[in-house]
Amino acid sequence: MSDNFQKENNKKTNYYGNKYFFLNGRCSINAKPYCLMMTIMSLFYDYIHTFYYMNVYIKDDRILILIFIILSTLQMTQTLLTALIDPGSFVPQPKEAIDYSLAKNDSLYATLDNGDTTKLKLKICTTCHIVRDLRVFHCSTCGLCILRHDHHCPWLSTCVGLNNHQHFIFLILINSVFFCFTLCFHTYMITKIYDFDLGVIDIMFIIFSIVMNSIFFSFQVVLIYNHTIYICTGETTREKLKRLNKNKSEPFINPFRTSCRIQNFKEFFFCPMRYKEHVIYSDMASKYLDTYKLINDDLGGTFEIKDNKVMSETLIKKGYRYKLFELEMCSKTNDSVETSSSINEEKLDYDNNENKKVILIKSEN
């Protein structure tokens, strides 16, 4: 990547839609993260309240206190990771970047390579001015199109998408364990009122904690149940709602699932973008989709361009394998790119075209 192109990226603002981006676009935060702040404050209240009673009344049980510290640390870490890691936001384009007359015809579609001729129509986002790829939805709260959008979480003030969906799953698992732990502890405390000589204020605080932790624990169990089903069936929350709202006279087509639930589970955690191997885009759709960049790739400069197609580090890490070759984005100097191929060894010629590196692949057929 040329120095000029790097400087061009450095000039770009770190504010898109309704979010601020930092760390080269890898992290983002909503411009009004009030719900996230309330969530963090609520968690710290629970930490301080529980730790106080542990330290005062059962201070001899160091193992219990150690378990509490570990759980609270894991919970806060996963909360911040899920809330701050960018879910996979696309760079908004200028209005003239797309021809809106395409929405009136059927030129924007995709099919699958399994022999099914059903056309999966792609829509145009009138806010970001891009053609929305499969599994891309626009979030009105974040003001951006999100890749593999699952839902917008108001408690974290962010969307759950490609980059932070796995962190969200780990978060609700840790939340369920933590709230169950604190619920059991406060229930134990209320049964020892006379042994611990608790006052009226202490009893009111403990009862309040029991009620709140019961609600939070029940909510996490419901989330775990729903998302386990979604993962095993190879769909997202957004796709599930779309399927339920679909006219029952028309069969709903889910091109992202396999017949094996274990395979769907493995693909979610290890290669959530593998489904793109089986997607065939129309010429017009490919023309637009091949030039898109995620914000973290754009600001970080972690992409290359080959035949006007964007080679995204994010998509490659998530399991998207290009059919001609595999490109591993490694640490780069000004004029060097490390590339590996699963097909054969290829020679790369570099040509500086308008300050952008164009990779010319010479493959032996």
Number of helices: 11
**What radius of gyration results from the CA coordinates?**
25 Å
Q: Looking at the structure, what is the overall shape?
A: elongated
Strand content: 15-25%
Highlighted features:
365 residues; alpha+beta; 11 helices; 43% helix
Give a written overview of the molecule.
There is one protein chain. Helix 4 (165-191) runs antiparallel to helix 6 (200-233). By secondary structure, the chain is an alpha+beta fold. Helix content is 43%, strand content 17%. It folds into 2 domains: 18-87 and 153-245; 95-152 and 248-362, no CATH class. The two termini are 28 Å apart. The chain has helices spanning 3-10, 34-57, 62-84, 165-191, 193-196, 200-233, 237-245, 261-270, 283-289, 295-300, 313-317; strands at residues 15-16, 19-22, 27-30, 109-112, 120-121, 123-125, 130-132, 136-139, 144-147, 151-153, 158-160, 279-281, 303-306, 309-312, 347-353, 356-362.
Q: How are the elements arranged and paired?
A:
Layout: H1 3-10, E1 15-16, E2 19-22, E3 27-30, H2 34-57, H3 62-84, E4 109-112, E5 120-121, E6 123-125, E7 130-132, E8 136-139, E9 144-147, E10 151-153, E11 158-160, H4 165-191, H5 193-196, H6 200-233, H7 237-245, H8 261-270, E12 279-281, H9 283-289, H10 295-300, E13 303-306, E14 309-312, H11 313-317, E15 347-353, E16 356-362
Antiparallel strand pairs: 1-2, 2-3, 4-5, 4-12, 6-7, 8-9, 10-11, 13-14, 15-16
Helix pairs in contact: 2-3, 3-4, 4-6
